[in-house]
């Protein structure tokens, strides 16, 4: 929490100076892309196998739900 | 009867040589060879599969312990797999080589195979996910994604590959995590020979490398050579002795660690079983047997004896389903 406040403060100061506007944009893009990669990693980790199962159960010929759960 | 027919079809005897032809040696009859069409060469194998015959014969998936795989197909394209493994796995340790850790895990997997899209996912009980995606963007361009995701931070890996298949060449561009970028290119030069090269760049360690490879194959044999600027020279030779038997040999030299390894092995593909064995210059003997007991039921035996390190590994298992 403290680091987030301090980085926002640093960002405002850089914007105020106007000379390093490009650097602030670059840092913002890097922070957001890191955040997006972390979220994408979590979504893939939990959702990849359910995604395959959903795509598979909707392919033709449509298999039954009981076939998915039973071991035979 | 056959001989009289042959005699009737025989050409008239050649005229006696005259002039300069008396002094020169007689002209050897030219065998009619198929003219090589350099504009119509076959497409080469992908660069990472350049040594695939040697790898298939010499490096089977040896394991120690019990392995049980069950694949259940729900329809033509979609299948689920359950896999149990109990045994020792090798963890490389910096101090004294390799430590064996007893592990047991259950792995659940789902596969979806379409002509255009392939999705394979495997998740293990400790939370590791192994995902592979292959999608054909167009007829010639393929996107492949390969990822290993773990619960521990900073241990996950991912790689994106873009493959382009041309008429007689293949090109690939790779992007991976840790700022890894790579590209490779392979081209058929004659109907039997293909040459390729690769470059890679590791962002975080500021390392780059370049490598060259060549592959010569005929119906009966395949030979490959690879040289890389990381100091690795790898040669391999596979000879298909008959439909059922292949012999393979392999040589690897690492200039940085001054490590030389050479191995030779055999691969018997018989009706009911497949037996692979190899002998190494490190004093390691290995064998791998897959025996087909019934339709879709395979029995697997794996053995690896390392005389130098006194390490004996034996494993057995069963695979049910395609």
TrEMBL record, chain A:
<protein>
    <submittedName>
        <fullName>Mitochondrial import receptor subunit TOM7-1-like</fullName>
    </submittedName>
</protein>
<dbReference type="GO" id="GO:0005742">
    <property type="term" value="C:mitochondrial outer membrane translocase complex"/>
</dbReference>
<feature type="transmembrane region" description="Helical">
    <location>
        <begin position="42"/>
        <end position="59"/>
    </location>
</feature>
<comment type="similarity">
    <text>Belongs to the Tom7 family.</text>
</comment>
<keyword id="KW-0496">Mitochondrion</keyword>
<keyword id="KW-0472">Membrane</keyword>
<dbReference type="InterPro" id="IPR012621">
    <property type="entry name" value="Tom7"/>
</dbReference>
<keyword id="KW-1133">Transmembrane helix</keyword>
<keyword id="KW-0675">Receptor</keyword>
<dbReference type="Pfam" id="PF08038">
    <property type="entry name" value="Tom7"/>
</dbReference>
<keyword id="KW-1000">Mitochondrion outer membrane</keyword>
<feature type="region of interest" description="Disordered">
    <location>
        <begin position="1"/>
        <end position="25"/>
    </location>
</feature>
<dbReference type="GO" id="GO:0030150">
    <property type="term" value="P:protein import into mitochondrial matrix"/>
</dbReference>
<keyword id="KW-0653">Protein transport</keyword>
<keyword id="KW-0813">Transport</keyword>
<keyword id="KW-0812">Transmembrane</keyword>
UniProtKB/TrEMBL annotation, chain B:
<dbReference type="GO" id="GO:0030150">
    <property type="term" value="P:protein import into mitochondrial matrix"/>
</dbReference>
<dbReference type="GO" id="GO:0008320">
    <property type="term" value="F:protein transmembrane transporter activity"/>
</dbReference>
<keyword id="KW-0496">Mitochondrion</keyword>
<protein>
    <submittedName>
        <fullName>Mitochondrial import receptor subunit TOM40-1</fullName>
    </submittedName>
</protein>
<keyword id="KW-0813">Transport</keyword>
<keyword id="KW-0472">Membrane</keyword>
<dbReference type="Pfam" id="PF01459">
    <property type="entry name" value="Porin_3"/>
</dbReference>
<keyword id="KW-0007">Acetylation</keyword>
<comment type="function">
    <text>Central component of the receptor complex responsible for the recognition and translocation of cytosolically synthesized mitochondrial preproteins. Together with TOM22 functions as the transit peptide receptor at the surface of the mitochondrion outer membrane and facilitates the movement of preproteins into the translocation pore. Directly involved in the pore formation.</text>
</comment>
<dbReference type="GO" id="GO:0015288">
    <property type="term" value="F:porin activity"/>
</dbReference>
<keyword id="KW-0812">Transmembrane</keyword>
<dbReference type="GO" id="GO:0006811">
    <property type="term" value="P:monoatomic ion transport"/>
</dbReference>
<keyword id="KW-0653">Protein transport</keyword>
<dbReference type="InterPro" id="IPR027246">
    <property type="entry name" value="Porin_Euk/Tom40"/>
</dbReference>
<keyword id="KW-0406">Ion transport</keyword>
<dbReference type="InterPro" id="IPR023614">
    <property type="entry name" value="Porin_dom_sf"/>
</dbReference>
<keyword id="KW-1134">Transmembrane beta strand</keyword>
<keyword id="KW-1000">Mitochondrion outer membrane</keyword>
<dbReference type="GO" id="GO:0005741">
    <property type="term" value="C:mitochondrial outer membrane"/>
</dbReference>
<keyword id="KW-0626">Porin</keyword>
<dbReference type="InterPro" id="IPR037930">
    <property type="entry name" value="Tom40"/>
</dbReference>
<keyword id="KW-0675">Receptor</keyword>
């Amino acid at each position: 929490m403290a680091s987030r406040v301090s980085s926002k403060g640093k960002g405002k100061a850089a914007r105020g100076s106007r000379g390093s506007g490009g650097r602030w944009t670059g840092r913002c893009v890097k922070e957001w892309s890191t955040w997006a990669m972390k979220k994408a990693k979590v979504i893939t980790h939990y959702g990849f196998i359910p995604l395959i199962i959903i795509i598979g159960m909707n392919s033709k010929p449509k298999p039954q739900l009981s076939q998915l759960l039973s071991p035979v | 009867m056959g001989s009289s027919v042959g005699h009737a079809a025989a050409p008239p005897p050649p005229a006696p040589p005259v002039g300069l032809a008396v002094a020169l040696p007689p002209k050897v009859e030219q065998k009619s060879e198929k003219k090589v069409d350099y504009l119509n060469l076959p497409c080469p194998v992908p660069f990472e599969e350049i040594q695939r015959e040697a790898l298939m014969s010499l490096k089977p998936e040896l394991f120690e312990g019990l392995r049980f795989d069950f694949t259940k197909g729900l329809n033509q394209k979609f299948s689920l797999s359950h896999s149990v493994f109990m045994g020792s796995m090798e963890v490389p340790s910096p101090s004294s080589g390799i430590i064996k850790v007893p592990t047991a895990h259950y792995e659940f997997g789902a596969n979806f195979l379409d002509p255009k899209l392939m999705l394979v996912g495997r998740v293990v009980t400790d939370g590791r996910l192994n995902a592979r995606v292959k999608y054909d963007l167009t007829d010639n361009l393929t996107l492949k994604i390969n990822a290993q995701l773990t619960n521990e931070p900073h241990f996950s890996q991912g790689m994106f590959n873009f493959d382009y298949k041309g008429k007689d060449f293949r090109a690939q561009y790779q992007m991976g995590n840790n700022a890894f970028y790579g590209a490779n290119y392979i081209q058929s030069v004659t109907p039997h020979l293909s040459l390729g090269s690769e470059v890679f760049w590791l962002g975080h360690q500021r390392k780059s490398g370049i490598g060259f490879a060549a592959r010569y194959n005929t119906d009966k044999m395949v030979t490959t050579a690879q040289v890389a600027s990381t100091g690795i020279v790898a040669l391999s030779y596979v000879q298909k002795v008959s439909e059922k038997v292949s012999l393979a040999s392999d040589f690897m030299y690492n200039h940085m660690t001054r490590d030389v390894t050479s191995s030779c092995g055999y691969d018997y593909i018989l009706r009911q079983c497949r037996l692979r064995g190899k002998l190494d210059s490190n004093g390691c003997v290995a064998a791998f047997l897959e025996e087909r007991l019934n339709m879709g039921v395979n029995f697997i035996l794996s053995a690896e004896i390392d005389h130098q390190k006194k390490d004996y590994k034996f494993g057995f298992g069963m695979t049910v389903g395609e």
